[in-house]
Amino acid sequence: MENKNKGRLEIVCGSMFSGKTEELMRRLNRAEYAKQNVLTIKHQIDKRKSQTCITTHSGRERHAFSIDNDKNNLNKILELANKNIQVVGFDEIQFFPKEIIDIVITLVDSGKRVIAAGLDMDFRGEPFGIIPTLMALSDDVTKLKAICVVCGNDAHHTQRVINGKPAKYDDPIILVGASECYEARCRNCFKIEKSSPDQINPNILQNNKITQAQI
Is 23 marked active-site? Predict the structure, then answer.
């Protein structure tokens, strides 16, 4: 995968319902219009609407290879992104473990354009997994905003709602879902029930360092 000319890394981030997958698809489609070969990758955990496609909330689909966290399967991405592939797109990249960072950089160093879409903050309003690192390493970051379902202002928080109430701070980070359990909220309307410091399990704090994959 050697190439004298290196590629570039583009990050498309924001809250849920901000149009991240729509923007990813738009860029990948433009690359195909330019006669470039494109590879699309998704995480296996995201089965909301399709196992073999990335899907927007409006129902648009694009075929994608579904990959889990197994190291051998992650390395298959490099095999799929052979010399004929010029552009690689990742949807919901926050679901991948930290090992994906080295794979992404390897792709970029080999001359490929990599476009990765994902949540920049989790339901707690905190940096999500590997996204901060990828944003720091990227050539370009596009942060999209949704519309707050409460007040109609710009929203960059993802509000998790359980039985009509805001989720608790120490609930599991990963809960795959859509409008049935998530809402877009602005900073003023976003709510999270935080535990006091002496109530937080130290294992939770350890497992949620932003340098670790949150899955």
Answer: no
Q: What is the pLDDT of residues 193-210, one digit of tens each?
A: 776 554 444 444 444 443
Instruction: Look at residue 75 and tell me if it is in a domain.
Output: yes
In a domain, 77, yes or no: yes
pTM of the predicted model as reported, rounded to 2 decimal places:
0.84
Taking only the tens place, the pLDDT of each residue in 180-193 is 689 999 999 999 87
- The encoded tokens of residue 114 equal 């990599």
- Token couple for 103: 């794979």
Give the domain range for residue 85. 8-144
Among 22, 23, 61, 92, the active-site one is 92
Looking at the 3D structure of the chain, how many domains does it have? 1
- Cα separations (Å) of 139 from 40, 114, 150? 19, 10, 34
- CATH number of the domain to which 19 belongs: 3.40.50.300
Residue 168 lies in a domain: no
Q: Identify whether 133 is part of a domain.
A: yes
Residue 67 tokens, joined: 């990959």
Length of the chain: 215
Strands 113-119 and 87-91: parallel
